[in-house]
Specification:
Number of strands: 8
Oligomer: single chain
CATH class of one domain: Alpha Beta
CATH architecture of one domain: Alpha-Beta Barrel
Bound molecules: 1,3-dihydroxyacetonephosphate
Radius of gyration: 17 Å
Shape: globular
CATH topology of one domain: TIM Barrel
Distance between the termini: 22 Å
Length: 254
């Protein structure tokens, strides 16, 4: 019997936000989240709003994270943001390998693995995003794809690094489409991922949080969270609406 892993809900704002709208959203989350009893909640605003968000969340139970990180140490990398800078601003989490970064910014498995290492070495918890496209799913290649994406980071850093990491399974075809994976389909991938990590280290696999992302909403969250290997959610669109995000957090412990 696997130990119960603390549930984790993270809100990825993507390239959305504005000072006034952020303040309203964070104010409401801060006020209403304590009653949700979800183990951990994080918000992941765009880089320019990290400082504002850190200040508005100060003293709250909500963690701060970023959506991306440079694989390089500080230096001549115009436009990049180093892991140490994110730590400086209070980030505890950072996404690496979100499918939008992979598809739109040319991030390969090797680059993502380096970013994972940069985040980890700086003391943050990387949230490693994995997921197949519709074509890959239709070709029955889902597990090949997510294993390949996982393997790059496992090979470079070893399974011990996953003691302080989160996996986010986000099928590309479910992101922003309203077409969430069914709880059973997502569970099958989560279970396979956990079994793959267990081959290298049983204890790390048992404690590893594997969260699901892709059209998570208030009305489908509880069924996803009821699956034994779904430990929370990576929320996109619904993370911009305080009531929708709070409803997803409440679904962790209905
Ligand atoms: P949606 O919840 O909008 O589908 O986005 C999911 C996602 O990409 C979170 O990182």
């Amino acid at each position: 019997m696997l130990p119960v892993r603390p549930a984790f809900v993270a809100g990825n704002w993507k390239m959305n936000g504005a000072l006034a709208a952020n303040a309203a959203l964070l104010g409401k989350l801060r006020m209403e989240l304590p009653e949700c009893r979800v183990a951990e909640v994080a918000v992941l605003p765009p880089f320019p709003y990290l400082d504002q968000t850190a200040r508005l969340l100060s003293g709250s139970t909500i963690s701060l994270g970023a959506q991306d990180v440079s694989r390089h140490a500080p230096g001549a990398y115009t436009g990049e943001v180093a892991a140490a800078m994110l730590v400086d601003l209070g980030c505890r989490y950072v996404l690496v390998g979100h499918s939008e970064r992979r598809a739109l910014h040319g991030e390969t498995d090797a680059i993502v693995a380096e970013k994972f290492g940069a985040a980890w070495a700086a003391g943050m918890t990387p949230i490693l995003c994995l997921g197949e496209t519709l074509e890959e799913r239709q070709a029955d290649a889902t597990l090949d794809v997510v294993f390949r994406q996982l393997e790059a980071a496992l090979a470079l850093h070893g399974v011990a690094a996953f003691a302080n990491a989160v996996l986010a399974y986000e099928p590309v075809w479910a992101i922003g489409t309203g077409l969430s994976a069914t709880p059973e389909a997502a569970q099958a991938v989560h279970q396979a991922l956990r079994q793959r990590v267990a081959k290298d280290d049983l204890a790390v696999a048992a404690d590893l949080r594997i969260i699901y992302g892709g059209s998570v909403r208030a009305d489908n969250a509880a069924a996803l969270f009821a699956q034994p290997d779904i430990d929370g959610a990576l929320v996109g669109g619904a993370a911009l609406d305080a009531d929708a995000f709070l409803a997803i957090c409440r679904a962790v412990n209905p």
